[in-house]
Write a structure and sequence with these properties.
This protein is an alpha/beta fold. The protein has one domain: TIM Barrel, CATH 3.20.20.150. Helices cover about 40% and strands about 15% of the residues. It is built from 9 helices and 10 strands. About 45% of the residues are buried. The structure holds zinc ion (ZN). Zinc ion binds next to loops.
């Protein structure tokens, strides 16, 4: 299984990559800059992290886009700023040898013009793709004015983007629960994956942000929690781990904490649940066997 985490790069990109590798992780998510604003600090030379990633055994590096821009803004100056920053983020990700830029669909400004906001987001993604690299659109909790919480809305976004292997989906389990998709049982996991397949296409699923949600299902409040401390069920966690293992879909922890030491409780729970799963379910009974193709 490819397990990863969002970690802080405060001590340097090479340092955090080695830290992830020593903790046994094989995927990693980083911000390339302060996600809430300010000047993006300078990056290491292009390609210099590639050997560091290889040596550390990090097979998938996600670069999370900053939050201070609204890629779905209707206001021209506002969306213009977002597009410049996000196209630059694609270049920053490439320089860091990142595989994907992970992006939230942004916020609607005027509810009556929600459709226009979605169209603006689709155009933003097209502009990002003028730079080399790949994008993952993340489902949201639907908090406040957030777009992209409902899978029908994500379907609309992906239809607008069109069929390209350069854009995929990042599924956040805390956001899915907060919006209203329960994840208590094995059936819940199966239903959610079927929904992903029906509305977006399971082959587009290129990563899962594995988080528990502090607030209840349907609360539309985005607060990540430690695994099994919120509304995520143990049975659902086992089913998700099993599915990710079978389909080689990387998991990225965004639970509270900034480093691998603070993430140990979650990593421990994953190991424990994995052991239970392999003890009680034979490989031939893996449900919903559609796997994402290797990248
Ligand atoms: Zn997330």
């Amino acid at each position: 299984m490819r397990l990863g985490a969002q970690l802080s790069q405060a001590h340097g990109f090479d340092v955090v990559i080695r830290e992830a590798g020593s903790a046994g992780l094989s995927a990693l998510q980083l911000f390339s800059r302060n996600p809430v604003g300010g000047q993006g600090k300078s990056l290491p030379p292009a390609g210099s992290l590639k050997p560091v990633l290889r040596e550390a055994g990090i097979e998938r590096l996600y670069i999370h886009a900053p939050y201070f821009v609204n890629p779905a803004a209707i206001d021209e100056a506002m969306v213009g700023r977002a597009r410049v920053a996000l196209k630059q983020e694609m270049r920053r990700a490439k320089r860091l040898s990142g595989d994907y830029v992970v992006l939230h669909p942004g916020h609607w400004q005027d509810k009556a013009r929600r459709e226009e906001s979605l169209a603006a987001f689709v155009d933003t993604v097209a502009i990002m793709l003028e730079a080399p690299g790949r994008v993952l659109v993340e489902n949201t909790a639907g908090q406040g004015r957030e777009l992209g919480a409902d899978f029908l809305e994500l379907q609309q976004i992906f239809q607008g983007i069109g069929r390209t292997r350069r854009v995929g989906l990042m599924l956040d389990t805390a956001h899915a629960m907060a919006f209203g998709y329960p994840l208590s049982s094995r059936d819940d996991v199966e239903r959610l994956l079927e929904r992903v397949d029906e509305n977006v296409g399971i082959e587009r699923l290129q990563g899962i942000h594995l988080n528990d949600s502090l607030y209840p299902v349907g609360s539309r409040r985005d607060r990540h929690a430690r695994l099994l401390s919120g509304c995520l069920g143990r049975e659902a966690l086992g089913a998700l781990l099993r599915w990710c293992d079978a389909s080689h879909c990387p998991l990225v922890l965004e639970t509270p904490g900034r480093d691998t030491i603070q993430r140990q409780p979650d990593i421990g729970i994953i190991r424990e649940v994995c052991q239970e799963e392999s003890a009680c379910v034979s490989p031939s009974t893996v449900f919903y066997p559609t796997a994402s193709p290797p990248r």
